[in-house]
C-alpha cells in the first residue's frame, strides 16, 4: 500500500477540517457529524484517522488545561523508609 | 550695553577657542560703535566715548582682525592706566587677556594643535572600540564552533541510495550547504509541512544570487516501506532539488544515529500501516560537513532563511 500523494493528502486534510468544524459547531456531538465522519474515514488511511482523532483529543485537552487550569498531581511521597 | 557684553563674551569665547566667531563679533561691534560715534557726534555715553578713542584701529586692520581683538589690550599699561570713568572690564578678563600675549600666530598654532590632537585621540578611541568589538565577535564565533564540535553531530559518514537509485555518501555533499530532514512518506501531516517549509526556505534563498545554493535532503526513518520508488513519488511534490535518501535498515540506522535522531515505528494496524514516531528537526550542515544549527516546528520559513543567511555570511568571513 503506497503512501498518499499530495492530492490525496490534501483531500484527507480537507475532510478532516470539515469534520472538526462540524464537531466544534456541535459541541463534539459525534452523532450530528456522521456524514463528515464517513467522508473523513473514506479519504484517509486508517492509521491517519486514528492519528487525527487522537490529535483532536489532545488539542481539546490542551485547550482545557489552558482555559480551566489544572490541579497538579501530588508528587512522589516522601521516603517511607 | 549690548556691545560691552559682546566684547566680554568675545574674550571668554576666545579662551574657549572659538576664535573666528568672537573676533568677528568684536569686529562688527567695534565698527558699528565707531560708525555710531561718527554719525551722532555725542560723547555722553561712556562706552561710546571709550570706543571712539579706538576708532583709528577700525579703519585699517580688516584682514588681521585677530590683531584687532587685542587692539584695546595690546598696550596693557594703556588699558589699566587710562581712566575710563564708570566703564571697566571685570578683573579676570583683563588678566586673561593680558596672559594671552600679543602673539597671534601662537594662538593659531595652539588652536590647530588642539584640533589635531582631539581628532587623533577621538579617532584612536573609535579605532580601538571597533577592533575590540570585532575581536569579541570572532571569539563568539569560535566558541560556538567549538561547542558544536563537542556535540559532534553528523561526524560519521552515511551511505544511502537516492530516489533515483544512485548511491550517495556524505562526502558527495561536502562543498554545499545542506538542510537535512528525517521523516517517512506515510507521515500524516508533519513531514509534508516540514518539507513544504524547507522548500519555501530553499526557494527564498535561491532568489539571492549572491548566496550559494542549499541542498535539501530527506532521509527516511522507515526503510521497510520507503524504498527508492516510494521516495521518488514522494519528493516530486516538493522542491525540485530535494533528494530523498533510503537504504537498508542498517544503513538508515547509521545515518539516523549520526544525528541522534529518535525513530520508533508504532503498532501495525490490520492494513499493516503504522506511524513512525520521530524527532522533528531540520538540521543545517555547512560545506565542511559540520553540523551548524537546527530548526524545530516553531521556526517558520522566514526565520530559518534568515538564520541560514547569517550562517553563510559568518562562514565566509572565517
Automatic annotation (TrEMBL), chain A:
GO terms for biological process: mitochondrial ATP synthesis coupled electron transport; respiratory chain complex IV assembly. SUPFAM superfamilies: Cytochrome c oxidase subunit h. It is found in: Mitochondrion. It comes from the Eukaryota. PROSITE patterns: CHCH. InterPro entries: COA6 (IPR042289), COX6B-like (IPR048280), CX6/COA6-like_sf (IPR036549). The keyword Lipoprotein does not apply. The keyword Ribosomal protein does not apply. Gene3D superfamilies: Cytochrome c oxidase, subunit VIb. Keywords: Disulfide bond, Mitochondrion. It holds the Pfam family COX6B. Its main location: mitochondrion. GO terms for cellular component: mitochondrion. This is Cytochrome c oxidase assembly factor 6 homolog.
From TrEMBL, chain B:
The keyword Transmembrane applies. Pfam families: SCO1-SenC. Belongs to the SCO1/2 family. Its main location: mitochondrion. It comes from Salvelinus namaycush (Lake trout). Gene3D superfamilies: Glutaredoxin. This is Protein SCO2 homolog, mitochondrial-like. The keyword Ion transport does not apply. It is found in: Mitochondrion inner membrane. SUPFAM superfamilies: Thioredoxin-like. Signal peptide: none annotated. GO terms for cellular component: mitochondrial inner membrane. The gene is LOC120032144. One of its GO terms (molecular function) is metal ion binding. Cu cation binds at residues 187, 191, 278. Keywords: Copper, Disulfide bond, Membrane, Metal-binding, Transmembrane, Transmembrane helix. Disulfide bonds join 187-191. The chain crosses the membrane at residues 115-132.
Amino acid at each position: 500500500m503506497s503512501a498518499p500523494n499530495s492530492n490525496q493528502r490534501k483531500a484527507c486534510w480537507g475532510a478532516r477540517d470539515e469534520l472538526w468544524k462540524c464537531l466544534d459547531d456541535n459541541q463534539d456531538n459525534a452523532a450530528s457529524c456522521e456524514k463528515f465522519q464517513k467522508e473523513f474515514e473514506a479519504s484517509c488511511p486508517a492509521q491517519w484517522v486514528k492519528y487525527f482523532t487522537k490529535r483532536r483529543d489532545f488539542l481539546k485537552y490542551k485547550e482545557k488545561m489552558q482555559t480551566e487550569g489544572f490541579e497538579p498531581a501530588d508528587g512522589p511521597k516522601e521516603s517511607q523508609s | 550695553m549690548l556691545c560691552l557684553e559682546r566684547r566680554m563674551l568675545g574674550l571668554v569665547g576666545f579662551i574657549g577657542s572659538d576664535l573666528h566667531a568672537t573676533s568677528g563679533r568684536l569686529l562688527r561691534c567695534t565698527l558699528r560703535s565707531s560708525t555710531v560715534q561718527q554719525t551722532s557726534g555725542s560723547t555722553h555715553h561712556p562706552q561710546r566715548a571709550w570706543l571712539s578713542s579706538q576708532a583709528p584701529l577700525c579703519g585699517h586692520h580688516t584682514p588681521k582682525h585677530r590683531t584687532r581683538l587685542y587692539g584695546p589690550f595690546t598696550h596693557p599699561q594703556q588699558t589699566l592706566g587710562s581712566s575710563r570713568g564708570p566703564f571697566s572690564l571685570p578683573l579676570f578678563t583683563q588678566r586673561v587677556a593680558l596672559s594671552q600675549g600679543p602673539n597671534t600666530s601662537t594662538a593659531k598654532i595652539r588652536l590647530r594643535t588642539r584640533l589635531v590632537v582631539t581628532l587623533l585621540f577621538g579617532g584612536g578611541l573609535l579605532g580601538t572600540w571597533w577592533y575590540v568589538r570585532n575581536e569579541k565577535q570572532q571569539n563568539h564565533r569560535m566558541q560556538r564552533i567549538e561547542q558544536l564540535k563537542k556535540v559532534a553531530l553528523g561526524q560519521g559518514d552515511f551511505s544511502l541510495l537516492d530516489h533515483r537509485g544512485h548511491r550517495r555518501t556524505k562526502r558527495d555533499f561536502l562543498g554545499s550547504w545542506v538542510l537535512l530532514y528525517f521523516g517517512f512518506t506515510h507521515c500524516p501531516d508533519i513531514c509534508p509541512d516540514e518539507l513544504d517549509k524547507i522548500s519555501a526556505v530553499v526557494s527564498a534563498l535561491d532568489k539571492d544570487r549572491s548566496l550559494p545554493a542549499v541542498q535539501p535532503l530527506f532521509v527516511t526513518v522507515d526503510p521497510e516501506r520507503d524504498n527508492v520508488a516510494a521516495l521518488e513519488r514522494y519528493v516530486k511534490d516538493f522542491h525540485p532539488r530535494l533528494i530523498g535518501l533510503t537504504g537498508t535498515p542498517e544503513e538508515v540506522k547509521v545515518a539516523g544515529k549520526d544525528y541522534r535522531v529518535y525513530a520508533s515505528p508504532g503498532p501495525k494496524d490490520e492494513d499493516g500501516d503504522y506511524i513512525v514516531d520521530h524527532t522533528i528537526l531540520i538540521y543545517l550542515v555547512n560545506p565542511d560537513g559540520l553540523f551548524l544549527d537546527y530548526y524545530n516546528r516553531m521556526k517558520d520559513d522566514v526565520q530559518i532563511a534568515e538564520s541560514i543567511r547569517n550562517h553563510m555570511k559568518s562562514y565566509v568571513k572565517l
